[in-house]
Write a structure and sequence with these properties.
Helices cover 83% and strands 0% of the residues. The chain is mostly helical and 151 residues long. Helix 1 packs antiparallel against helix 2.
């Protein structure tokens, strides 16, 4: 009999605390859910501003990387140009004999081969043709003025 009374008392207390905890959990759960929803609505513009700032930083970094790549390419192009100038200057030699045709060909191939990766070799060939034509035209004018007695 005492066991039944104690079991009944224990069951009563167990159900009482279970109902109290369910009530408080639903009450606090609803309060916290409402609080989180309110904070989410309140802080949404702040999160948007933070996301925009991260996007701007990302775009600035992408621009910086593009500029660094551009400057590296320009540096490589400048180095190829300087290499070509030095190769040209190194090709100037005095020989008392008559020059053979095509003596300058390896020098121009060095310059043009270094411009190949930048796809500027076609432009170099066109400029080379223009230089040769203008040199030939100037030589013809000089020789023509000497033949007529000079000016």
């Amino acid at each position: 009999m005492i066991g039944q009374i104690l079991r009944a008392g224990w069951t009563f207390l167990e159900r009482l605390f279970q109902r109290l905890f369910e009530f408080f959990s639903s009450l606090l759960g609803g309060l916290f859910q409402t609080l989180f929803y309110f904070l989410r609505l309140l802080l949404r513009p702040l999160f948007i501003v933070i996301a925009l700032l991260f996007y701007v930083v990302y775009k600035i970094a992408a621009l910086a990387i593009s500029l660094i790549a551009l400057f590296l390419s320009l540096g490589k192009l400048l180095m190829a140009f300087i290499k070509g100038i030095f190769a040209t200057l190194a090709g100037f030699t005095y020989t008392p004999s008559t020059p053979s045709n095509g003596q300058w060909t390896p020098i121009f191939h060095n310059v043009i081969d270094s411009l190949g990766p930048y796809q500027l070799d076609k432009i170099a060939y066109i400029l080379l043709f223009c230089i040769w034509i203008s040199t030939a035209y100037a030589a013809i004018r000089i020789i023509g003025s000497i033949r007529n007695g000079g000016d």
